[in-house]
Each structure stands twice: as structure tokens, then as C-alpha cells.
Amino acid sequence: MRYRRPIRAGALLGLAVLLAACAPAQTDNAGTGEDSMEGTLRVWLFSEVDQEPKEKVVDDAVAEFEAAHEGVQVEIQYIPVDSRAERFQGAFNDPSSAPDVAEYGNTDLAGYVEAGGFADISEELAGWKPGEQMSDDVAATARVDGGTYGVPWFLGVRALFYRTDVFEDLGIDTPRTLEEVVEAGRTVRKEKPDMLGLSSGGAYTYGFLPFIWAHGGDIAVKEGGSYTAAVESAEAKAGLELYSQVLSKDVCPPQTCAQMTGNESVQNFIAGKAAMTIGGNFNLNAVEAADVADDTAVIPLPGTEPGSVAPAFAGGNNLGVLSGTDHHTLSVEFVQLLAGKKYQQRMYEAMGNLPTLGGVQSDVAASDADIAPFVETLESGTRFVPVTGAWASIDAEGVLPTMVQRVASGDASVDKAAGDAAASLDESFGGE
């Protein structure tokens, strides 16, 4: 698989996006106020399909930490991602059973903070040198209302995968803009009707959001202490209009693609059924193991102008300190060790996790050409979902996919679908 820059311009948990969990009710989960420097430090990390490589890295970090902290034992527990909502709710309700440190999905954070579950460690991180290597876009995924509730540990961003053999056969240049991506998909579909031009579904939220962001639109804007929907702005509707052209018989027919999720979108590409898809760095291993690997290249998903990159969603996992811990200082120090340069590098080598520290990103991009377009995407600037507990219900109710699907199916115009989605978003924001 190759990393190709656009021809005319001069020339990537398997991390699946974590489903938003329902935020637990506000609780009084304060600990005893003690800050012990000895005893057992309890840590929750997410279990993985292939967990052994992750355990090896974490075990080495634990050994290093224990060697530097006499009288301290670190106890690691791996918890299933699917049951995390119940586990964290129980932890917030009963600090005596809670961990001191936990890995969590960044889209879940706002709800956890509303529940009082995580500690603001802004002050402790202020002098942490590695943190200076983290872009503000990435650092923002651990912030809520001015507080910092952890350290981004690894990320997942998406780029454009495409079939070089198909493009060469049809004389298609590497797309330089989103318009050219759609046009390339249209050409493929016309010349090879057995293929999808661009496999990207109506239920693929993080596949279509870059279209909105690239046009200058957004999901919502924050005014004072609350959010207001922005999907009916002219810019957002321009992105929706262009993405609706993807979900057409000319590129990705609605009967096949309107209900398609992100995983399904990428699977079509892996199976050789599509000329392009919007996939993540976390999909690289699957693509590399497929028959299409030798005929696949990856570039950053282009924006609206040649040379630009469409903003990608910065999904990923953070490491945070529980507010009820009796080992606050030790907890922060363990987070800093595991999220620091050494172990971010080790986690990339073991799991393929995209690092959050700029220096590590540069190192991995220099050593692995396949990861370079994802690092370039990060460097170009990423975006995030509204940082509010309401996002859980918005995501669960499928407000944004419904908007897209209504346009694709012809049930509503862009104006009508965007207006109705805005009303649903504002209702959710108003119920926070």
C-alpha cells in the first residue's frame, strides 16, 4: 500500500469509533481527601480483540512505575468497551470500588464530567513538557468548560483510500478537492458499474462530517454556556449537498449505501467492491491483509481547494484520573508515564495506535509511509463533536445520519432535512 500525494499538486482496538454512552446521574463521588503515596493504584484499561501486545507495553510501564515508587503496586484491570457505561456509572456511584486511573473514549468525556466522575488535572499538567508537543485540536478532546480531565493517549483519524489500478485504468488523476473525489467516483461508477465509486454510507457520521467542516460549516456553535445548532447554515448545507451526491446512483446508490455504516463502507473497499473509501489509520492492517493491498494508496481527504485537507474527526481514547481517588498524585504521574513519549511510541509499535504527541507522530511518519497521510491530516487540523453530555442522545438517536439519509432518499430537500436536524439538536441541547 502506498502513500501518494496528489498528482496534479506536484507529484488510519482496531479502534472503532466508540459509541457514546449515556451519562450517569450526578453523584457525590468525592473520596476521603487523602493523597496517599503508597499502596495499590487501580487502573482500568479497555480490553482488545488482540490484547497481548497492549498488555506487554502496559506491563513494562507498570514495572517502571513501581520501580520508581517504593511501596506502590499498580493493579491493571481490562474492561470491555461495550459495558463501559455500566462500569463507569458504578464507579462514580461508589468510589470505594472505582479505579484511580481509567482509559475512556473522548466522546464520552462530557457526560462523565457532568457526573463528577473525573478530576480536573489542568494544574498538574501545566508544567508537563511532553504536553507542549500536543496540538490544541488534540488537547481539546480532554477539555470540558475550561478544565482538563486527562491526557489524550491515542487517536484515530480518517483519510481517502483509493484503488490505483482502477484510477490508472480509467485515466483518473488523484483528487485534489472534495468535488474531484465525487467526480472520480462518478467516473468509476459509469465505466465500472459493478463497483461503487466511493463507498461511504448515510450512517457514516465521521465520513460525512468532513464535507460539512471543509465547507466552513459545523454541527453546532457554543454561545455562552450552551450550544446552538449550526447545521442549517449555508456552509453546512453546501457540505451536505455535496455529500448527497455521493449517495446517488451515480456514485454509491442509496439502496446500497443510505443505511451503510463506517465499518460497512470500508469493508466494501477491502472486498474489492469500491474504488475509494474514507477509512481510518485503524483500518490499515485490514487493508494491508486484503487482496487489494498492492493496488491501494492513501492520501489525506482533500478539502474544497487544491492543496487543502478536509478537517477530520479526532476520535480516540484518553487517560484520566477519577475524582474520588485517594492516590491523586500517583494517578497523575502514572497517566503522564503511560501517555508520555516512550509509551506512545511503544503503543504505536504494538497496536498501531496513532500517537497524540507531535514528536512521536513525526517519528512514526518518517518510519512508516503508510501512516504519513494520517499524520498530515492531524497536522492540518482536526475537529470534534460538541463537548456536551447531550451528544450521547444525539448520537444514539442518529440525528445527523437521519438528516443525510432523508436527502439521499429524496424524502426531504437539503433545506428541510437540515432545518429539522437543527430543531432536534436544539431540543437536545436545551434538555442538558
Automatic annotation (TrEMBL):
Pfam families in UniProt: SBP_bac_1
The answer to whether keyword Signal applies is: yes
The record's listing under InterPro entries reads:
SBP
Q: Where is the signal peptide?
A: 1-30
Which key words tag this protein in UniProt?
Answer: Signal, Transport
SUPFAM superfamilies in UniProt: Periplasmic binding protein-like II
Entry similarity comment: Belongs to the bacterial solute-binding protein 1 family.
Q: Which PANTHER family match?
A: MALTOSE-BINDING PERIPLASMIC PROTEIN, MALTOSE_MALTODEXTRIN-BINDING PERIPLASMIC PROTEIN
Q: What is the protein name given in its UniProt record?
A: Extracellular solute-binding protein
